[in-house]
Specification:
The chain is an alpha/beta fold and about 210 residues long. Helix content is about 45%, strand content about 15%. It is built from 8 helices and 6 strands, in the order βαβαβαβαβααβαα. It has a 6-stranded parallel sheet with strand order 3-2-1-4-5-6. The longest helix is centred in the last third of the chain and has 15 residues, at about 140-155. The chain is globular, with a radius of gyration of 17 Å. About 35% of the residues are buried. It binds adenosine-5'-triphosphate (ATP). Adenosine-5'-triphosphate (ATP) binds near residues 110, 132, 175 and 176.
Length: about 210
């Protein structure tokens, strides 16, 4: 079984997450994608919506896709959610057999700070990474970010990550922009799943 792990704050989950995860699964011929909402992302102070709301939005966003699932493992732990801890804890559940494999999905905007991830070298020895294209992360910006990878983690890892860039569609959505849009009453059509938009409205989130 080939499983993709996709971690994040999902505050809120948007079509950038969903469409790129779907494309990545197709490109990599993976069997499933496991969304892993973080309790607190190590590089963020806090989330805007509660754990329960972020989980509920994610469940609504993936409902139509039978190859997507959500695991609330990180939400049930206190403190920052470190990917190395999650992978070590969940590997027996999602990849128990020798031929099973886990690949982590992450947006290209994460490359420049990958070296700050806890026990990143160990993590990279346990799982592959696959990098989702993100608007603005191309040409010189992408090269610059990959050079940061090379500076802190070495040339072989730079080459490995450069080869792990997936030709996923570039979706102009970010949770930060969506929170601002919702607060300002601007449209979210094409950026948010309608069921997630309805949930946000019904619970008056990000107002
Ligand atoms: P924020 O704007 O609050 O930083 P975000 O939109 O980046 O949030 P996260 O939940 O922090 O969303 O992201 C989880 C993962 O999804 C990260 O690896 C991020 O790079 C990736 N990601 C987010 N939006 C996109 C997108 N539009 N296309 C591809 N990857 C994305």
């Amino acid at each position: 079984m080939y499983t993709l792990f996709f971690g994040g704050s999902f505050d809120p989950v948007h079509l950038g997450h969903i469409l790129t995860a779907r494309a990545a699964r197709e490109i990599l011929h993976a069997d499933r994608v496991v969304f892993l909402p973080a309790n607190i992302s190590p590089h963020k102070q806090s989330t805007c919506a509660s754990n329960d709301h972020r989980l509920a939005m994610l469940q609504r966003a993936i409902i139509a896709d039978t190859l997507f699932l959500v695991d609330d493992f990180e939400l049930t732990r206190t403190g920052p959610s470190y990917t190395i801890h999650t992978v070590l804890a969940l590997r027996p559940r999602y990849a128990p057999l020798p031929d099973d494999k886990i690949t982590l999905l992450l947006g290209a905007d994460q490359l420049a700070r990958l070296h700050t991830w806890l026990r990143i070298t160990e993590l990279l020895s346990l799982v592959d990474l696959a990098v989702l294209g993100r608007i603005g992360e191309s040409g010189p910006t992408l090269d610059h970010d990959l050079d940061i990878v090379a500076r802190y983690l070495g040339q072989p890892i730079r080459a490995r990550l450069a080869a792990a860039l997936l030709p996923t569609p570039l979706v102009p959505a970010s949770s930060t922009d969506l929170r601002h849009r919702i607060q300002s009453g601007l449209p979210t059509v094409g950026l948010l799943d309608p069921a997630v938009a309805a949930y946000i409205r019904n619970h008056n989130l990000y107002a």
